[in-house]
Amino acid sequence: MKYRKLGRTGLEVSVYSFGGIVVMDHEQKRANEIVSRAVERGVNLFDVGPTYGNAEKILGPALEPYRKEVVLTCKTEPDQSKEEVREDIEKSLRRLKTDYFDVYQLHEVTDRGTLNQALAPGGALEAIQEAQQEGLINYIGFSAHTQEIALELMKKFDFDTVMFPINWNYWFNEAQGQKVIAEARKTNKGLLAIKALAQRQWQENEDRKDYITWYKPVFDHNELSELAFRFTLTRDIDTAVSPGDVRMLNRGLDILEKYENNLELTDSEIEKLKKYVKTHGGQLYPIPH
Asked: Does pTM top 0.85 for this prediction?
């Protein structure tokens, strides 16, 4: 496993990290095994949130033996009040059996109205800042899905980290991601990439192979999954958060082990990936409801 600094936080994080929704609805024993195996393979950043079903309740006991060795990131919904966010923070701390979060984020800021609500007096950000002053949170971040909103958030507040989809299809098809990275790096913000192994939205009546992800992960095309994953990890990011399925978590780890000493894509591989955008790409965002 390779490790990188999470921007100006200085935290050493694995280049591939654990999306906490992976353990949602698993038996505790199985979740413990999944987490233990991920740690053994070098994963040291775990990201979760209260909207991921029962994931926090299951991840907490599974992660407890490793808490001092790992980076734990959590999140809250940005349209909630200051009081609601404070309740989120306290509940998440209890469920995850910890007394602090390394990073706490505004989750899925999708439009300007939600953005303004989160940053207004009495909003989500105010609660997060107060928790930071109390030592419950070390660093503050956000996640967004469009460049417009991500850039606006960075303009309005000096966040420590940014979570954004750095995805082969979204990058080449929609030109999303480049400006976010460039702006974030101006102030050395940490960059957490999501959707490295995403393909596109599910098509109607498509066989989902029991995947619970709202998008189709690249589970049925080995070459494309390797190219897509390597593409994300060779952008200027610090870590890529796994899809919410243990099969894709392990797929990413396998690709990493195979290409650990040579993740860079050749010019011909980049061209091949661009062709896959036309044959295997399609609409990714916005999240369908």
From this structure: yes
